[in-house]
Write a structure and sequence with these properties.
single chain, 871 residues, alpha+beta, 8-stranded mixed β-sheet, 6-stranded mixed barrel, elongated
Length: 871
Amino acid sequence: MRWPWRRALDDRDAALDEEIRAHFAMAIADRIARGESPASAAAAARREFGNVGHVKEATHDLRGGAWIEQLAQDLAYAVRSLRRAPGFAAVAILTLALGIGVNTAMFTVMNGVLLRPLPFLDPDRLFVAAYAPPPGPFLNVRGLYDSDFLQLLAHDPIFERVTTFHSSTVTLTAAGEPASLRTAVVTPDFFRVLGVAPAVGRPFMSSEAGPGRHNVVILSDALWRGRFGAKRNVIGTSVMLDGTPHTIIGVMSATFDFPARTDLWTPLEVTVSSHETRIRTVIGRLNPTLTRTQAQAAWPSVAAQLGTAPELHPRTFVAELIPLKDVVVGDARRPLLIFAGAVAFVLLIACANVANLLLMRVATRDREIAVRAALGAARMRLIRQLLTETLAIAMLGAAAGVALAVAGIRMLLAIAPAETLPRAGNVHVDGGVLLFTAGLSIVTALLCGLVPALHATEPRLRASLVNGARTASSTHGRARALLVVGEVAMAIVLLTGAGLMLRSFHRMRSVDLGFRPASVLSATVDLPPNAYRTAADMRDYQQRVVGELARIPGVRSAAAVNWIPLGNNLIAGDFHLEVASRESSRNVADKMVVSPEYFRTMGIDVKRGRAFTERDRLDAVPVVIVSQSVADRFWPRGDAVGKRITMSDKPGPNDWLTIVGVVGDVVQAGVTSKPDAALYQPIAQTPQPFFLSHVTFVIRPASESPAIAPAMRQVLRDADATMPLRSIQSLTDLIDGTMLAPRFQSRMLVTFSGLALLLAVIGIYGVLAYGVAQRLREIGIRVALGAAPSRVVAQVLRRTTALVLPGLFIGILSSLALTRVLATYLFQVTPTDPVTYVAVALLLAVVAFAASYLPARRASRVDPLIALRAE
């Protein structure tokens, strides 16, 4: 069966052939009529008519549509040509599949995270309104004070609507096992500002944010399906949140996830308190009469009129109007762009490899191309044919690359931490990704095929016909060498970036945290305010649990702390010395409350004085332990023990705390941060519920035992069966969790640089092996004349050096310029770290010379007779 367009072309070709034959017959008849013999008339007419093929092509061009036929012919010839060289086709297709596949996967991620619009109504008109707050331990949220939000709510010339929110954690009961859920507490206009509505039920009403009227809740789709079986009749039923009944009024759609990983939404009433200063994220939808540029120009003057703004120092006041999408994406943009650059290098190296393969291939087709040119094929026609062959390879590579990308994306989503890959639910292969891949394959075909095509069609027809296309031109060799040098240089850049990230990650792992995490297990709970209303209730629960944990067989010690190191929760505040000094003008420290065995359990050294004991009760003298940095700053002579400090701005007689000990500094906020100044108070003497509602229990076993974790879980369950328990984890796992992002970034760059190194080595091997194969006759003659095998090997190694050294030089210079983009992600390592550069250069040199082993070995074992007979 033939396609209709093919039948039409065949019919047109038959008509054209008939027309040419008629013109030819008329020319012969005319000459015979003038007295020429039939034979001479036919010969003269043939000479006059010229190349029939050219005439047919010119006629096709005039009639249009010839390019379709020629493309079909070129593709058919390309497929036949590739079938005759299956080894070449397989290597070229797999190489491009690798390069196109990783680029398709990376574009899919960037498309989902950075390019797709937010799933809101007119998302480009949603902005976060903020100003930079004064430096301080509390005010580190990009947003506005509650008082400023209320002013915007009353009179706002920029936004049509505004909303604010914050995230918290609540305990869900009366719906299966107790669970700790992530909650967004939002003003009633939250969903209207975003332009979304619940898939089931209704949004909040304004009246539901008033006092005593905010006990309603909207569920996420995942929570609705996981806890309530996706039943629509849950609307109107009640669940217990922190022991308080809340009526379910709606369920959001599966595509709505803002703030990220939120399980449910509850209404917020914004009020101003003289005892509490709070900053929250504020989102506004632009007034329809304003453009983005106009709004951003007007916002500084509006922000300057807010109640709190005049208190800010002029040099620290920075009004910001930030697109909501930029806030949602956060810090993910820059690493993704770095990864995109890395995979682009991988594709370029793959293209260089395939271009080298094509140069080797066209060098063996010189005679074929010369014959085609002699038969009338124009140079552009030959270039098009060769590019079509490359396009066929690229398309097949793209098809395999898409399959590779799908598998790679699944793996990437499984290992990528949430903060590195926000909006992960949008990452999937779609029509836009496939269109990108198709365009990329065309660009790849041009990158790979243009240089070989130009070299193959150089006007050297006579030499090719005489030599039988047995010897590649010297320009081919230079082009292949330049391609390999480029591969080496690009591989050096990627290897250097990966080496810097690995060195940085190793430095993070070796940081002295100030405590000994080995073998320590931890479990965190949040005490619901309805069940634990007073500080006395919370202290009783914690002391009871610590006592039971200490009695577990195999446990050496047990303790409790409100803010575990590296636990993503931290409170810092000011304190005052009993005797003020010049050094005490601004005293800020982390504030922790701990049980007596905390320092022993965590392995924190007591430098001077003592740790807390059971005698440090509520009715005893209030005591405090300070960290080494606090003692060194205020009492450099080592006499901190016995001094007194207070946490109160207007201290009474019972507000003074006596320092009873000094402990080593602990890295509390993150492994890349410096140890903070810290104050420790005993749980038994802490009267504020705020410091006690969040607690982490830690135990140090005498020896490793798999039974200790289940026993720890049972103790917590027995203490309060309604309390949701987060997973029990070792402190080592907790520390590793804080380094997920740098570990992920290091793994990605190592993977890409490994692919680049592999492709570069393949390129080096290919050039050397082909060079040895082309010079078998010369090598055979040299061996026959007495050349030692070692000299032959040395010649191959010199060729390797000539390829590697320029690549190393160019790659190192490029790395010095390009790796500066990694400076933000490096820890105790500079982008010009000499150890990394030396190590990378040595690695590539060793691998490159290892790749030259087989060609050198083959050259040293050439049999002169076989080599000469082969020629």
